[in-house]
Amino acid sequence: MQRVKKILNDTADVVAETVEGLVLASDGTTRLMDGHRVIVRQPSAREAGRKGKVGLLVGGGSGHEPLFSGLVGQGLADAAVCGNVFAAPSPDAIAAATQDIDDGAGVLYVYGNYAGDVMNFDMGAELAGDEDITVRNVRVRDDVAAAPKERIDDRRGIAGDLFVVKIAGSACESCDTLDEAWRITAKAEANTRSIGVAVSAGSIPETGKPTFELGDDEIEIGMGAHGEPGVSRQKIGPADAVVDQMMAALLPDLPFERGCEVALLINNLGASTMMELLIANRRIRHCLDQAGVGVHRTEIGHFLTTQEMAGYSITLLKLDDELKHHLDAPARSVAYSRG
Amino acid sequence: MQRVKKILNDTADVVAETVEGLVLASDGTTRLMDGHRVIVRQPSAREAGRKGKVGLLVGGGSGHEPLFSGLVGQGLADAAVCGNVFAAPSPDAIAAATQDIDDGAGVLYVYGNYAGDVMNFDMGAELAGDEDITVRNVRVRDDVAAAPKERIDDRRGIAGDLFVVKIAGSACESCDTLDEAWRITAKAEANTRSIGVAVSAGSIPETGKPTFELGDDEIEIGMGAHGEPGVSRQKIGPADAVVDQMMAALLPDLPFERGCEVALLINNLGASTMMELLIANRRIRHCLDQAGVGVHRTEIGHFLTTQEMAGYSITLLKLDDELKHHLDAPARSVAYSRG
Amino acid sequence: MADELDAVAVRAMLLQVCTRMIENTDRLTEADQAVGDGDHGIGMRRGFTAARDKLEALEPASVAEVFKTVGTAVMAQTGGASGAVFGTLYRAGATACGDHALDAATFLAFLEQGLAAVQKRGGAVPGAKTMIDALAPAAEAARAAQADGLAAMIRAAADAAQQGVQASRDMIATTGKARTLGERSLGHPDPGAISMQIQLAAMQDYVAGQRED
Amino acid sequence: MADELDAVAVRAMLLQVCTRMIENTDRLTEADQAVGDGDHGIGMRRGFTAARDKLEALEPASVAEVFKTVGTAVMAQTGGASGAVFGTLYRAGATACGDHALDAATFLAFLEQGLAAVQKRGGAVPGAKTMIDALAPAAEAARAAQADGLAAMIRAAADAAQQGVQASRDMIATTGKARTLGERSLGHPDPGAISMQIQLAAMQDYVAGQRED
Ligand SMILES: Nc1ncnc2c1ncn2[C@@H]1O[C@H](COP(=O)(O)OP(=O)(O)O)[C@@H](O)[C@H]1O
Ligand SMILES: Nc1ncnc2c1ncn2[C@@H]1O[C@H](COP(=O)(O)OP(=O)(O)O)[C@@H](O)[C@H]1O
Ligand SMILES: [Mg+2]
Ligand SMILES: [Mg+2]
Ligand SMILES: [Mg+2]
Ligand SMILES: [Mg+2]
């Protein structure tokens, strides 16, 4: 089979070149750590006059750009550690990033709940612990398709990362202690639910091959952010039916009840058209109206991608006043500038 | 041939459903005009206390989302008129939008320089003229691949639309007269140059067919925003070589000379990965460094798409203090929030 | 042989035009895929479907009203370059009809005023590979057939349009979305010219059918 | 027949492991495409290429140093789940070696301590369809072959790992990226288990080659 067509240099260099390009795209607001694929906010919080700030470290495998690396900046993460494509970063890089951003108040890690990330971030935290740095974790487990609610720890992190990192960024900016920033971030994580669908696969640049095969008329419901299989593979129906099925999985899970207010994220997994996402949004809002759920804020576009996978995910974050405050706080980065 | 796979309802309804979804995505900051596919800022400038503001109307064919409709908002356009997929909007919709936003100071039209748009916007302006509304046009002609510089009026508008609309939005917000807003916007347009490349085609939802065919190892240099052919079709080389070729067409055209400062836009035409754009950014910055051109601001992502076409364009806008001021002014919309 | 058509007959003739245009959606789309952005067929289908619906609902008071109805529907619903040019053709052409029934002189005026309006609107000259390259020869042939009556004039116009479509193959586009193709546009006929020819051929067939009655 | 390997020989044995792992890139990637995210082969290639480079530059002072070199390189360069688990296996296994040459007892300790560390690190139990399902039976077989010397022990371990790979076909994944596949993971072996088996088979072949010398 023909390699998937892309405009690349040597495929072994994609991650190194991507982080280089990301730093340049930040117009001086980030830098690359020496010897590691770690993108660090510049000036640092301390350099910008904010002493003793709780550090926020995010990261995971590459290939999902603009996340996580695009979320380093004011009101967001202090650093992002970038693994290889679809592979968690290594403990040494995580530890180095932790040391770089710690200013005495400890560091909060926010990352997706995958075996690889958990193991590597845990090892990184242990190495950082050797340097007397306190670390706490929030692992994003928003994908309702990954496991039933009773086994929430088996759920993986998908586009809900965006909201959790956004809120963590604001919390770490404003809270005095790591524990307080952790509490708010953990609440955001606990209130976030997502589900994705895909109609065609992405590919890993080094292999050049689609990571799965799907029939010409098939859709995968519950697709993971690396092309991991979802809950069902079926004939692709009209957009409204697809959305209805996704919403039926999302709404009862938390649950999102009548009278509650949410932030809504429709995330493009890669090659879907914005048109499809906007058409979905119509129906999502219809479903939310029916359920009596209000929308405080909508995000729609490419945030956590799976290379050129075609499909999208829907994320709902249930808000209270505290979460709303942190969600609406200003933020500036390559991938997310608001407020 | 199999239809291109997408998540849609009835393909005849895509535009109607897309504008509906866009308005909902704006969280109350836009509304849809009765009887027309026109998205209008809400509250209007007048309702927000800004009397006699110069109106800014943008628009063109649909299928390029998030532009133009995603650029309606504070510091940006007062309204966007949405044609069918790849088809300019009709004169009656343009005239209706013009009347809706005019507050006595006249209306500036900003749109891409295509025969269809020119004819329809001109007719719309004539209809508006019948109602004593003054209209001025800035037609974006940024695509250097479309015609040689001597025939600049034969050039079409591609992603440079973003910068021109951004600056027009700020100018219309702050200038007292239509002529002054026009002057600044026309300067922005005159200083903008773009070029695009594509490795695979987008499709029009109603036909479900790719709009062109390209060999498995081919790239089209100078690809238009509707899949119109470019200047050459060749074997796809490494990313750095592709970028070098694009920059060699861009830099001498204005020209962008040693010591000048630019805004840089790398626009995803649809299905390319952010990774590819970031990798390109690396090389673009290298080329700009070599040419002694500084970058004031970088935008990178999906702005003017061609459905699921894979490829990207590079836009340079040469800045002076006035343009920089208007480029940096705050803006809020579905597609573009900064500052 | 009807050498004059009243408003009701013109309505029937234009309904035939609508039907033919809708039937040719795929052909027109494919032609536009070769040299443009691939939407001409669906644009024309939208426009002429709207025109058909308006015509079907219309109790026509005049020939002018029939032409204008088509032009207005096409302009509003097609969008793009072709919505503007064909909308302009029918709307400007309508003003040539006055209160008259459609006879040879009126049809010639329709084509000539329509052509002038299209050229004024879009600024394209003959040879630029547009629908003008079917319309201009049609108008010219109509003028040459002035003395021959309506049916012969429409046939002459349709034949000339057909030749115009063929001639457009050898033209390099200098306007519209085919413009940047340059030499690559050679060998492909212009989509809008094909549309123009289909419309005139539909009129010809209608009038020929009338004649045989 | 070498029933004890010094640090230089262990280095040669692990170079053989690196070579085999690099050769199996495509097979491992395909296995991961079936049940995971399709990157296992390229991850292992990155990790074991780095390990090979480090080993080639190494003047090994001890067996422990050789194992640790591999573990550290794999952990730093592979990333993902497999970087963590194989990195942990070699690094934790290294601590079992002390200053000894590699004999049967040391190899058994390597496997058992490595296994324990991997289980502690990732929390996966046997039957969860991971590399543990090759490693645990290998360690068990090694213990049973305790009295038979190093070469026989490695052979027994490699054979058991091979059976573990087969057995993993019938397991439903409950960890890693295959987790959500549920029943759909049935029939496919675990990629990491295949890697474990390839590594033990490479060791076995090395020791067998040594013996024939
Ligand atoms: N300036 C012009 N004058 C006359 N006809 C034009 C002009 N520009 C384009 N056309 C016609 O429009 C046709 C294309 O129509 P269509 O595909 O519907 O519009 P678009 O180019 O906006 O996609 C061309 O084939 C050509 O015949
Ligand atoms: N918790 C765990 N314990 C042991 N091995 C694991 C665990 N999670 C995953 N693995 C192993 O890792 C393998 C996948 O490795 P790889 O594809 O490189 O990483 P990733 O899953 O991060 O893409 C699985 O086949 C499995 O053998
Ligand atoms: Mg992986
Ligand atoms: Mg068009
Ligand atoms: Mg067209
Ligand atoms: Mg994997």
Automatic annotation (TrEMBL), chains A, B:
Transmembrane segments: none annotated. GO terms for cellular component: cytosol. GO terms for biological process: glycerol catabolic process. The keyword Transferase applies. Keywords: Kinase, Transferase. GO terms for molecular function: glycerone kinase activity. Residues 10-336 form the DhaK domain. This is Dihydroxyacetone kinase subunit DhaK. The lineage of its organism: Bacteria, Pseudomonadati, Pseudomonadota, Alphaproteobacteria, Acetobacterales.
UniProtKB/TrEMBL annotation, chains C, D:
SMART domains: Dak2. It holds the Pfam family Dak2. It comes from the Bacteria. The keyword Kinase applies. Residues 8-205 form the DhaL domain. Keywords: Kinase, Transferase. GO terms for molecular function: glycerone kinase activity. GO terms for cellular component: cytosol. One of its GO terms (biological process) is glycerol catabolic process. This is Dihydroxyacetone kinase subunit L. It comes from Lichenicoccus roseus. The lineage of its organism: Bacteria, Pseudomonadati, Pseudomonadota, Alphaproteobacteria, Acetobacterales.
